[in-house]
Task: inverse folding
Protein backbone atom coordinates (compact mmCIF):
# COMPACT_ATOMS: atom_id res chain seq x y z
CA UNK A 1 0.00 0.00 0.00
CA UNK A 2 1.34 3.32 -1.05
CA UNK A 3 2.14 5.86 1.59
CA UNK A 4 0.80 9.38 1.34
CA UNK A 5 2.89 11.46 -1.11
CA UNK A 6 4.55 8.36 -2.66
CA UNK A 7 4.10 7.60 -6.33
CA UNK A 8 2.39 4.33 -6.72
CA UNK A 9 4.02 3.10 -9.90
CA UNK A 10 7.67 4.25 -9.37
CA UNK A 11 10.17 1.38 -9.83
CA UNK A 12 13.78 1.15 -8.66
CA UNK A 13 16.65 1.12 -11.15
CA UNK A 14 17.92 -2.29 -11.98
CA UNK A 15 21.55 -3.41 -11.66
CA UNK A 16 22.24 -2.95 -15.33
CA UNK A 17 21.02 0.63 -15.31
CA UNK A 18 23.11 1.43 -12.23
CA UNK A 19 26.19 -0.12 -13.85
CA UNK A 20 25.70 1.93 -16.99
CA UNK A 21 25.28 5.10 -14.93
CA UNK A 22 28.52 4.43 -12.97
CA UNK A 23 30.37 3.60 -16.15
CA UNK A 24 29.15 6.87 -17.67
CA UNK A 25 30.26 8.77 -14.57
CA UNK A 26 33.64 7.04 -14.59
CA UNK A 27 34.25 7.72 -18.28
CA UNK A 28 33.23 11.33 -17.76
CA UNK A 29 35.73 11.67 -14.85
CA UNK A 30 38.49 10.11 -16.93
CA UNK A 31 37.78 12.38 -19.88
CA UNK A 32 37.58 15.42 -17.61
CA UNK A 33 40.83 14.50 -15.84
CA UNK A 34 42.76 13.66 -19.00
CA UNK A 35 41.60 16.65 -20.99
CA UNK A 36 41.05 19.30 -18.37
CA UNK A 37 42.97 17.91 -15.28
CA UNK A 38 39.84 18.40 -13.26
CA UNK A 39 40.71 15.74 -10.66
CA UNK A 40 44.28 16.89 -9.97
CA UNK A 41 43.32 18.54 -6.67
CA UNK A 42 41.32 15.54 -5.55
CA UNK A 43 44.23 13.24 -6.37
CA UNK A 44 46.66 15.40 -4.39
CA UNK A 45 44.38 15.49 -1.39
CA UNK A 46 43.87 11.75 -1.49
CA UNK A 47 47.66 11.24 -1.77
CA UNK A 48 48.21 13.33 1.36
CA UNK A 49 45.53 11.34 3.13
CA UNK A 50 47.04 7.92 2.34
CA UNK A 51 50.69 9.04 2.87
CA UNK A 52 50.76 8.00 6.59
CA UNK A 53 49.21 4.68 5.69
CA UNK A 54 51.86 4.17 3.01
CA UNK A 55 54.65 5.00 5.49
CA UNK A 56 53.25 2.62 8.10
CA UNK A 57 52.98 -0.20 5.58
CA UNK A 58 56.53 0.44 4.28
CA UNK A 59 58.11 0.64 7.77
CA UNK A 60 58.52 -3.16 8.29
CA UNK A 61 60.32 -3.47 4.96
CA UNK A 62 62.63 -0.55 5.78
CA UNK A 63 63.36 -1.93 9.26
CA UNK A 64 64.11 -5.39 7.85
CA UNK A 65 66.44 -3.90 5.22
CA UNK A 66 68.20 -1.78 7.84
CA UNK A 67 68.67 -4.74 10.17
CA UNK A 68 70.02 -6.85 7.32
CA UNK A 69 72.43 -4.09 6.35
CA UNK A 70 73.52 -3.68 9.98
CA UNK A 71 74.40 -7.35 10.36
CA UNK A 72 76.21 -7.36 7.02
CA UNK A 73 78.23 -4.27 7.97
CA UNK A 74 78.95 -5.74 11.43
CA UNK A 75 80.26 -8.94 9.87
CA UNK A 76 82.42 -7.00 7.41
CA UNK A 77 83.80 -4.83 10.22
CA UNK A 78 84.64 -7.92 12.25
CA UNK A 79 86.51 -9.42 9.30
CA UNK A 80 88.39 -6.17 8.73
CA UNK A 81 89.22 -5.95 12.44
CA UNK A 82 90.55 -9.52 12.49
CA UNK A 83 92.62 -8.84 9.39
CA UNK A 84 94.04 -5.63 10.90
CA UNK A 85 94.87 -7.40 14.17
CA UNK A 86 96.68 -10.16 12.29
CA UNK A 87 98.55 -7.60 10.20
CA UNK A 88 99.47 -5.64 13.34
CA UNK A 89 100.81 -8.78 15.02
CA UNK A 90 102.88 -9.60 11.95
CA UNK A 91 104.25 -6.07 11.82
CA UNK A 92 105.15 -6.22 15.52
CA UNK A 93 107.02 -9.48 14.96
CA UNK A 94 108.87 -8.00 11.99
CA UNK A 95 109.70 -4.83 13.93
CA UNK A 96 111.01 -6.78 16.92
CA UNK A 97 113.11 -8.96 14.63
CA UNK A 98 114.51 -5.89 12.88
CA UNK A 99 115.37 -4.25 16.21
CA UNK A 100 117.07 -7.42 17.41
CA UNK A 101 119.08 -7.67 14.19
CA UNK A 102 120.09 -4.02 14.46
CA UNK A 103 121.23 -4.53 18.06
CA UNK A 104 123.23 -7.63 17.13
CA UNK A 105 124.81 -5.83 14.17
CA UNK A 106 125.82 -2.94 16.43
CA UNK A 107 127.33 -5.36 18.92
CA UNK A 108 129.21 -7.24 16.20
CA UNK A 109 130.58 -4.02 14.71
CA UNK A 110 131.82 -2.98 18.14
CA UNK A 111 133.52 -6.35 18.59
CA UNK A 112 135.20 -6.10 15.20
CA UNK A 113 136.66 -2.76 16.23
CA UNK A 114 138.54 -4.41 19.11
CA UNK A 115 142.16 -4.73 18.08
CA UNK A 116 144.07 -7.83 19.12
CA UNK A 117 147.22 -7.09 21.01
CA UNK A 118 150.66 -8.50 20.13
CA UNK A 119 151.02 -12.07 21.32
CA UNK A 120 147.27 -12.49 21.64
CA UNK A 121 144.58 -13.91 19.40
CA UNK A 122 140.84 -13.83 19.80
CA UNK A 123 138.14 -16.42 19.28
CA UNK A 124 134.65 -15.22 18.40
CA UNK A 125 131.90 -17.03 20.28
CA UNK A 126 128.14 -16.71 20.60
CA UNK A 127 126.08 -17.10 23.75
CA UNK A 128 124.18 -20.37 23.68
CA UNK A 129 122.26 -20.05 26.93
CA UNK A 130 122.51 -18.89 30.50
CA UNK A 131 122.28 -21.07 33.59
CA UNK A 132 118.90 -22.62 34.29
CA UNK A 133 118.96 -21.01 37.73
CA UNK A 134 117.93 -17.33 37.63
CA UNK A 135 120.74 -16.55 40.08
CA UNK A 136 123.32 -18.55 38.19
CA UNK A 137 126.44 -16.58 37.33
CA UNK A 138 127.48 -18.76 34.40
CA UNK A 139 126.91 -18.66 30.67
CA UNK A 140 127.60 -21.22 27.95
CA UNK A 141 129.42 -20.29 24.73
CA UNK A 142 129.36 -21.89 21.30
CA UNK A 143 133.12 -22.50 21.17
CA UNK A 144 135.10 -25.07 23.09
CA UNK A 145 138.24 -27.17 23.00
CA UNK A 146 138.14 -27.56 19.21
CA UNK A 147 138.66 -23.80 18.89
CA UNK A 148 141.63 -23.85 21.26
CA UNK A 149 139.81 -22.70 24.39
CA UNK A 150 140.98 -23.75 27.84
CA UNK A 151 140.07 -22.98 31.43
CA UNK A 152 141.14 -19.61 32.80
CA UNK A 153 140.90 -17.60 29.57
CA UNK A 154 139.29 -14.12 29.84
CA UNK A 155 136.08 -13.38 27.98
CA UNK A 156 135.14 -9.85 26.90
CA UNK A 157 132.42 -8.13 24.94
CA UNK A 158 132.34 -4.74 23.26
CA UNK A 159 132.07 -2.84 26.56
CA UNK A 160 134.14 -4.73 29.09
CA UNK A 161 135.15 -7.92 30.88
CA UNK A 162 132.47 -10.62 30.91
CA UNK A 163 134.20 -13.29 32.92
CA UNK A 164 136.58 -16.25 32.76
CA UNK A 165 136.32 -19.64 31.08
CA UNK A 166 135.79 -22.16 33.87
CA UNK A 167 134.92 -25.39 32.03
CA UNK A 168 135.66 -26.52 28.48
CA UNK A 169 133.90 -29.10 26.31
CA UNK A 170 134.77 -30.10 22.74
CA UNK A 171 132.13 -27.86 21.18
CA UNK A 172 131.13 -25.53 24.03
CA UNK A 173 132.47 -23.91 27.16
CA UNK A 174 131.20 -22.43 30.41
CA UNK A 175 132.10 -18.93 31.57
CA UNK A 176 131.91 -17.71 35.15
CA UNK A 177 130.77 -14.09 35.14
CA UNK A 178 132.68 -11.34 36.92
CA UNK A 179 129.59 -10.76 39.07
CA UNK A 180 129.88 -14.25 40.57
CA UNK A 181 130.77 -14.26 44.31
CA UNK A 182 133.44 -16.88 43.48
CA UNK A 183 135.22 -14.57 41.06
CA UNK A 184 138.03 -12.17 42.08
CA UNK A 185 139.45 -9.73 39.53
CA UNK A 186 142.58 -7.63 40.13
CA UNK A 187 141.68 -4.08 39.08
CA UNK A 188 142.94 -0.54 39.31
CA UNK A 189 141.13 2.79 39.45
CA UNK A 190 141.59 4.43 36.06
CA UNK A 191 141.72 7.97 37.49
CA UNK A 192 144.25 7.39 40.28
CA UNK A 193 145.90 4.04 39.56
CA UNK A 194 144.87 2.63 42.95
CA UNK A 195 144.84 -1.17 42.86
CA UNK A 196 142.43 -3.54 44.50
CA UNK A 197 140.39 -6.71 44.15
CA UNK A 198 136.93 -6.60 42.60
CA UNK A 199 134.65 -9.39 43.75
CA UNK A 200 131.23 -10.32 42.45
CA UNK A 201 128.34 -9.78 44.83
CA UNK A 202 125.36 -10.99 42.85
CA UNK A 203 123.66 -10.33 39.56
CA UNK A 204 125.12 -7.20 37.93
CA UNK A 205 126.84 -6.12 41.15
CA UNK A 206 130.45 -5.99 42.31
CA UNK A 207 132.41 -4.62 45.23
CA UNK A 208 135.98 -3.42 45.60
CA UNK A 209 137.57 -5.01 48.66
CA UNK A 210 140.30 -3.93 51.05
CA UNK A 211 140.44 -0.27 50.04
CA UNK A 212 141.83 1.89 52.88
CA UNK A 213 139.53 4.58 54.23
CA UNK A 214 141.87 7.42 53.11
CA UNK A 215 141.89 6.26 49.46
CA UNK A 216 140.82 8.77 46.81
CA UNK A 217 137.96 6.99 45.10
CA UNK A 218 134.54 8.31 44.20
CA UNK A 219 131.33 7.29 42.45
CA UNK A 220 131.74 7.28 38.68
CA UNK A 221 135.36 6.07 38.68
CA UNK A 222 136.06 3.33 36.18
CA UNK A 223 137.82 0.12 37.19
CA UNK A 224 140.21 -1.55 34.73
CA UNK A 225 142.06 -4.84 34.90
CA UNK A 226 145.51 -4.27 36.40
CA UNK A 227 147.17 -7.24 34.68
CA UNK A 228 149.25 -8.21 37.72
CA UNK A 229 147.72 -11.72 37.81
CA UNK A 230 148.81 -12.42 34.19
CA UNK A 231 145.34 -13.83 33.55
CA UNK A 232 143.55 -10.72 32.38
CA UNK A 233 145.40 -8.34 30.06
CA UNK A 234 145.79 -4.91 31.61
CA UNK A 235 143.38 -2.12 30.69
CA UNK A 236 140.15 -4.07 30.12
CA UNK A 237 137.13 -2.16 31.53
CA UNK A 238 135.58 -4.09 34.40
CA UNK A 239 133.12 -1.94 36.36
CA UNK A 240 132.09 1.56 37.27
CA UNK A 241 131.93 2.66 40.91
CA UNK A 242 128.32 3.34 41.88
CA UNK A 243 128.62 4.01 45.62
CA UNK A 244 131.35 4.69 48.20
CA UNK A 245 130.54 4.55 51.91
CA UNK A 246 132.67 4.76 55.06
CA UNK A 247 132.21 2.81 58.28
CA UNK A 248 133.54 3.94 61.65
CA UNK A 249 134.04 0.33 62.72
CA UNK A 250 136.13 -0.71 59.70
CA UNK A 251 139.42 0.65 58.35
CA UNK A 252 138.28 -0.08 54.81
CA UNK A 253 135.84 1.64 52.48
CA UNK A 254 132.76 -0.08 51.18
CA UNK A 255 132.97 0.41 47.40
CA UNK A 256 130.15 -0.89 45.22
CA UNK A 257 130.13 -1.01 41.45
CA UNK A 258 128.29 -2.15 38.36
CA UNK A 259 129.90 -4.34 35.67
CA UNK A 260 130.42 -2.50 32.39
CA UNK A 261 129.96 -5.58 30.21
CA UNK A 262 126.50 -6.63 29.16
CA UNK A 263 126.36 -9.75 31.29
CA UNK A 264 122.68 -10.29 30.58
CA UNK A 265 122.57 -8.64 27.17
CA UNK A 266 125.60 -9.71 25.13
CA UNK A 267 125.00 -12.19 22.33
CA UNK A 268 128.55 -12.29 20.95
CA UNK A 269 131.82 -12.25 22.89
CA UNK A 270 135.55 -12.63 22.37
CA UNK A 271 137.77 -15.12 24.17
CA UNK A 272 141.32 -13.80 24.57
CA UNK A 273 144.09 -16.33 24.10
CA UNK A 274 147.66 -15.37 24.88
CA UNK A 275 150.20 -16.86 22.48
CA UNK A 276 153.92 -17.01 23.16
CA UNK A 277 155.81 -14.64 20.94
CA UNK A 278 158.50 -16.15 18.82
CA UNK A 279 161.66 -14.07 18.79
CA UNK A 280 163.86 -14.26 15.77
CA UNK A 281 167.62 -14.08 16.21
Result:
Amino acid sequence: MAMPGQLMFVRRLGPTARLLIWLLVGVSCVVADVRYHALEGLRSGFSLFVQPVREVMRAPIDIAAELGGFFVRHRLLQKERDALLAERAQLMISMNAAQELARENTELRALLQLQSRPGQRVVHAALLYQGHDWFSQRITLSQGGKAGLRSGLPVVDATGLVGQVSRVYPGASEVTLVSSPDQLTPVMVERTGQRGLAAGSGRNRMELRYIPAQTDIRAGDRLLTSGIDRVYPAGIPVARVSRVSRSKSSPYLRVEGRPLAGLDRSRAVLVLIAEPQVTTP
Q: What stands out?
A: DSSP finds two helices and twelve strands in the chain. The first strand starts at residue 120 and ends at 130. The two ends are 169 Å apart (CA to CA). The mean pLDDT is 80.
